[in-house]
């Protein structure tokens, strides 16, 4: 941060980040689902019949990719309700005033093998698969345009990140996990994950094969060159490609 902004700008940014550091809402078609808000008390949200988001207590990043918090943030306990969606439909994650510029965003899903709110379902043991990811869109690592920068809308309008539920996905209850990885600080990647419960309907019969699956924690480590990265180094600064680590995206084939 110190490298990319002056004192005043940082102060403004800091105030804004303390207001919003993750998914605020989800939309499916024209329906809005409110997310968990770290700004409001847990008592007002946890256990409420409308809660579709796993609670995340703070806007702070997670620095350790092996931490259990990487799964669904912290506390990441089950939601009460779920977002109904048909396989093949789009879901959008809505952010406000997202301020970091560098690093990939990845949307993951995992079957809950039954109700996502069941105490016997452990999301840190689930088989996660990617349904979409967006990284460096143009230019170079440091000065180019990443999706996490491009989607920002500083007018107060929502920052919209849309992905499609694979159209042949087998119906059932799933978690969806939106993750932003911020790489603007050398050798100190930051993760911002949030999970929501989905009830997927449809006539699909497919599930992703083994090569598409990963554990969270497990998919990332600081020894991966794209994760333990100093973007300002001679090695990376002017590169025009960045491979997003983890398994390939499953498009339902
Ligand atoms: C978006 O979610 C926030 C909480 O994160 C909530 O206060 C707000 O009402 C939601 N907006 C809509 C349109 O659902
Ligand atoms: C779903 O999202 C994709 C990719 O963002 C977009 O091309 C498509 O038009 C969207 N479909 C609908 C029905 O909004
Ligand atoms: C969930 O799974 C993780 C990873 O295997 C394990 O470390 C953790 O203790 C489990 N949590 C519970 C509540 O069983
Ligand atoms: C990146 O490219 C610019 C323009 O070609 C050059 O001036 C600069 O020294 C390069 N930076 C690094 C770290 O290689």
TrEMBL record:
For this record, the Gene Ontology CC terms, alphabetical, are: extracellular region
InterPro entries recorded: AA9, AA9_LPMO
**From which residue to which does the signal peptide run?**
1-19
The reaction(s) this protein catalyses: [(1->4)-beta-D-glucosyl]n+m + reduced acceptor + O2 = 4-dehydro-beta-D-glucosyl-[(1->4)-beta-D-glucosyl]n-1 + [(1->4)-beta-D-glucosyl]m + acceptor + H2O
Molecular function (GO) terms for this protein are: cellulase activity; cellulose binding
Query: Principal localization?
Result: secreted
Localization recorded for this chain is: Secreted
What's the protein here called?
A: AA9 family lytic polysaccharide monooxygenase
The chain positions of domain Auxiliary Activity family 9 catalytic read 20-242
């Amino acid at each position: 941060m110190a490298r990319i902004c002056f004192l005043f700008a940082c102060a403004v940014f800091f105030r804004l980040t303390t207001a919003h550091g993750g998914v605020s809402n989800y939309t499916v078609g024209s329906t809005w689902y409110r997310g968990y808000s770290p700004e409001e008390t847990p008592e007002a949200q946890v256990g409420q019949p409308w809660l579709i988001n796993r609670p995340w207590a703070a806007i702070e990043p997670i620095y350790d990719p092996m931490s259990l918090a990487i799964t669904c943030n912290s506390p990441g306990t089950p939601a009460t309700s779920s977002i109904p969606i048909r396989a093949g439909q789009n879901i959008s994650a809505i952010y406000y005033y997202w301020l970091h510029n560098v690093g990939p965003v990845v949307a993951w899903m995992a079957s809950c093998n039954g109700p996502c709110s069941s105490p016997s379902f452990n999301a840190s043991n689930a088989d996660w698969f990617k349904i979409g990811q967006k990284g460096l869109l143009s230019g170079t690592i440091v000065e180019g345009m990443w999706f996490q920068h491009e989607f920002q809308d500083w007018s107060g309008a929502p920052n919209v990140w849309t992905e499609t539920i694979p159209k042949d996905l087998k119906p059932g209850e799933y978690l969806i996990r939106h993750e932003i990885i911020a790489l603007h600080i050398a050798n100190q990647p930051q993760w911002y994950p949030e999970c929501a419960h989905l009830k997927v309907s449809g006539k699909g019969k497919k599930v992703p094969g083994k090569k598409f699956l990963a554990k969270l924690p497990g998919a990332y480590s600081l020894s991966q060159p794209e994760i333990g990265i100093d973007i300002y180094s001679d090695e990376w600064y002017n590169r025009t490609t960045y491979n997003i680590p983890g398994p390939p995206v499953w498009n339902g084939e």
